[in-house]
From TrEMBL:
SUPFAM superfamilies the UniProt entry points to: ACT-like (SSF55021), Formate/glycerate dehydrogenase catalytic domain-like (SSF52283), HAD-like (SSF56784)
NCBIfam families attached to this UniProt entry: HAD-SF-IB
Documented EC number(s): 1.1.1.399, 3.1.3.3
Keyword list, A-Z: Amino-acid biosynthesis, Hydrolase, Magnesium, Metal-binding, Serine biosynthesis
Domain of life of the source: Bacteria
Protein name: D-3-phosphoglycerate dehydrogenase
Catalytic activity: O-phospho-D-serine + H2O = D-serine + phosphate; (R)-2-hydroxyglutarate + NAD(+) = 2-oxoglutarate + NADH + H(+); O-phospho-L-serine + H2O = L-serine + phosphate
Pathway where this protein functions: Amino-acid biosynthesis; L-serine biosynthesis; L-serine from 3-phospho-D-glycerate: step 3/3
Presence of keyword Iron: no
Organism from which the protein derives: Pedobacter terrae
Cofactor: Mg(2+)
GO CC annotation: cytoplasm
Length: 433
């Protein structure tokens, strides 16, 4: 049987963008209003009441538009602002939208006037954007909205999709009650609660799947994506008295953080990154058993606290700050994040130092191996066998290990990875993006 066509129904506010556009428009239009703070609060409350299902959408919308006092000039400022506020994981996956332009629909209770200029940059077709429209006076003042549009009514998204009669498998991605209603009504097959910007408990608890990023959605549904493995699935263990700034850098990178006073063995099998406060230790036994551990950030001098030679032979990249520089609070977590994102080992304590440019439209593969003669020939024989075109290749060695980075631009099959992992003397292999 041929596979059903898939459609992706995506919300705009707090999903495609990081913010609620009407709230942002209010901040622009009421900038000089004496009671602006009180009005902002009212607008925000109306937004949240509707999102949590405590107030009908139409009632919430009518109240918010009334309070706005906005005009077309304010709209222009808003669009400029929203273009900078696209959710990180959506902007990272622009290629997906290009490829699936016919199947992606933006369905929003927001307004076309500001949604279209923002999402059009991502190859989303104008005819696939469903949203409300403003009513303006001759001199550009926003006074109302089109009440005949189903999206301005309670349950509007349900009414719209009933009318569209899309044939195929429908996926909904959003953060609010109106998105969940599509699932509740049975119109869509699966609802993904998008929590990159905001997690509403009442919605998260009802979702088929919680997706902390668009990468996660693409990964779960085995769709092409910019990064091979969603960062929210990478466990980052922070141990000891670590400055909140260091933690926030890693959190903002989308990693799954656990902050503990000491290394709990229950995490040993799954941990991908460890960040240690100065003075903390990791035993040889723990290092040997941490099969998924890729990098350690040590906020101080790691000498005598971690066995650096063992880390090297296990393929674990260590970043530390032997001079205890006060800037290591942000410096070390940034190095760790950079290594996870690009493979750069610049200023590592135990690995050959390599700074790497990110190459667009390619896949980056990392192969860490024992430094023995002929291994690069074996790696490149595997690529040749799979008809892979190499865009660029970097190799750095020290007496123990070789660190090879290969950028390829072809579609590949999973067999390629198995063959690379099977090369004798391989320590670690992973796909970065």
């Amino acid at each position: 049987m041929p596979k059903q066509k898939a459609y992706y129904i995506i919300d705009f506010d707090s999903t495609f963008t990081q913010v609620e556009a009407l709230d942002e428009l209010a901040r622009i239009s009421l900038k000089n209003h004496p009671d602006k703070e009180a009005i902002f609060q009212k607008i925000e409350d109306y937004t949240n009441f509707a999102m949590e299902g405590k107030l009908s959408f139409s009632e919430s919308l009518a109240q918010r538009v009334k309070l706005l006092e906005a005009n077309e000039d304010h709209l222009k400022q808003l669009i400029k602002h929203l273009k900078k506020k696209v959710s990180t994981s959506f902007s990272r996956n622009a290629e997906f939208f290009k490829k699936h332009a016919d199947e992606v629909l933006i369905v929003s209770g927001g307004f076309k006037e500001f949604i279209t200029p923002v999402v059009s940059q991502y190859h989303i077709k104008k005819e696939n954007i469903y949203a409300n429209t403003f009513v303006t006076t001759g001199d550009g003042k926003i006074i109302d909205y089109d009440h005949a549009n189903p999206l301005s009514e309670e349950g509007g998204k349900v009414k719209l999709l009933q009318h569209l009669k899309l044939e195929g498998e429908l996926f909904g991605i959003g953060d609010g009650y109106s998105d969940f209603q599509l699932r509740e009504s049975g119109i869509i097959n699966k609802f993904f609660a998008f929590t990159e910007n905001i997690a509403r408990e009442s919605i998260v608890s009802k979702a088929d799947h919680v997706t902390p990023s668009f990468d996660e959605f693409l990964y779960v549904n085995d769709l092409p994506r910019a990064i091979s493995y969603p960062k929210n699935r990478i466990l980052c263990l922070v141990i000891g008295d670590v400055d909140p700034l260091a933690i926030s850098i890693l959190k903002n990178d989308g990693l799954s953080i656990r902050h503990k006073d000491s290394f709990e063995d229950k995490y040993i099998k799954d941990v991908g990154i460890i960040v240690l406060a100065d003075g903390e230790k990791i035993s040889k036994e723990q290092l040997k058993n941490a099969a998924k551990l890729k990098t350690i950030g040590y906020l101080g001098n790691a000498k005598n606290k971690i066995d650096l030679n063992l880390c090297t032979t296990q393929g674990i990249v260590v970043f530390d700050d032997p001079k205890n520089n006060p800037r290591n609070i942000s410096f070390i977590p940034k190095r760790v994040a950079d290594f996870m994102n690009t493979g750069a080992t610049y200023l590592s304590a135990n690995f050959p130092n390599l700074q790497l440019p990110k190459i667009d439209k390619s896949h980056r593969l990392i192969h860490i191996h024992k430094n023995v003669p002929g291994i690069m020939a074996k790696i490149n024989t595997v690529f040749a066998k799979h008809d892979i075109n190499i865009v660029s290749q970097f190799l750095m060695t020290n007496p123990e290990i070789g660190y090879a980075i290969t950028d390829i631009n072809a579609q590949y099959d999973k067999q390629l990875f198995k063959s690379l992992k099977k090369i004798e003397q391989t320590i670690k292999f992973r796909v970065l993006y």
